[in-house]
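Q: Give me a protein?
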Amino acid sequence: MTRVVWEDAVVRLLDDVYTFAATGPKTSAGWQKDTLAVMNREVEDPRGWITLDWDRQNDQERTASRPSYPFIPLSEEELERRLRPVTAETAVRLLVEMTYEWGPVGTEEQTRVAFADARTVLHRYGDGISCYANISAAGESSSPDLSKGVTGWSPLTDFIGDFGFIVVSSKEVGVYWSFDAR
């Protein structure tokens, strides 16, 4: 895994949709606290790789509102309560759903490329990862059927909708989130 390969995959997937994609260090404080540090923009990518954050430059909104904008302020317990464990393959599917802004996936070739890119993104974190998502279907299964898209979630923003996942490895915590701000 190289920086260029990973960044190319992230940009192809998420650069033109309203998303948040950032990674921070995994510490002994616990993945929940590490996740909140990423959401609050308190930490940088430990490898210095790209972060996609549409709201990073929106200083006025973030300063007037909250550092975690568009995320609502959450405690570690509240964050964990809103998330459910999902498989790595479900996280891959969620990345593809973000790419197509919650709608149907594209052509067969676009779908193949999107899934390959999503697997590249997760490959950064290695094997033995844990993933947690806020989608409602994860309450019933860690590998839910997402063929009809994401249809329910436990919100982490004030927007009409948001869904995403946290990926936790032994060294890093990644946050991948999609927003419907209509």
